[in-house]
Amino acid sequence: MTDPREHRDVLEVLTEFTDEELLELSQMNAQALLMAGVLALGDDDAMLQTWAEGVAEVMTRGWDTTRAWSAAEIMDALLTNYRTYGGWVIEADLHDDHAAAIVADIPDLTLAETLGATDREADVLFRVGEEIVQRLGKRMRWQRDTDTGDVNIIIT
To answer: Which conformational region is residue 153 in: left (phi greater than 0), alpha (psi within -120 to 50 degrees), or beta?
Structure first.
């Protein structure tokens, strides 16, 4: 008997999505899942803060918290993760003690509008990012440009 994992995905033949299209769909689904999770929490800001802190606590388990991390190292990791969600880096200035960057297309504001997500839900990745950075001994500030949707991030 042959292993079915050695053959093409049956749906791949039926739907004919390219790998790039599947990646884009995956990125949108990941953003939608996060926004939907926050929407499900309701309007309780204390609950949202507890959730963001909890997610950050779990995520930082993958970091070596016994050593000092530079602002540049942390920013590089965050930018990599934001890119996996569909964002792209417009500008980055990475220094050990001060790192700054501008990212676009995260959150996807059209997706947020479709889901009925406000800024509170749409910006959840940055709230979690703030908590991760704090757990690593640094401070993160961020602000979304209301005209372009681009997000300016600073880690010190």
So the answer is: beta
Q: Read off the CATH number of the domain in which 26 is found.
A: 3.30.1380
- Smallest CA-to-CA distance from 74 within 104, 111, 37, 100 is with 100
Tokens of 11: 């749906």
pTM of the model: 0.85
pLDDT in tens, the chain (156 residues): 667 666 666 565 567 788 899 999 999 999 999 999 999 999 999 999 999 999 999 999 999 999 999 999 999 999 999 999 999 999 999 999 999 999 999 999 999 999 999 999 999 999 999 999 999 999 999 999 999 999 999 999
| Domain range for 141 | 4-155
Number of domains in the chain: 1
Residues 6 or more apart whose Cβ sits within 8 Å of residue 99 = 70, 71, 72, 74, 75, 76, 92, 93, 154, 155
**Amino acid at position 35, single letter:** M
Token match 């996996």: residue? Answer: 84
CA dist 78 and 125 (Å) reads 10
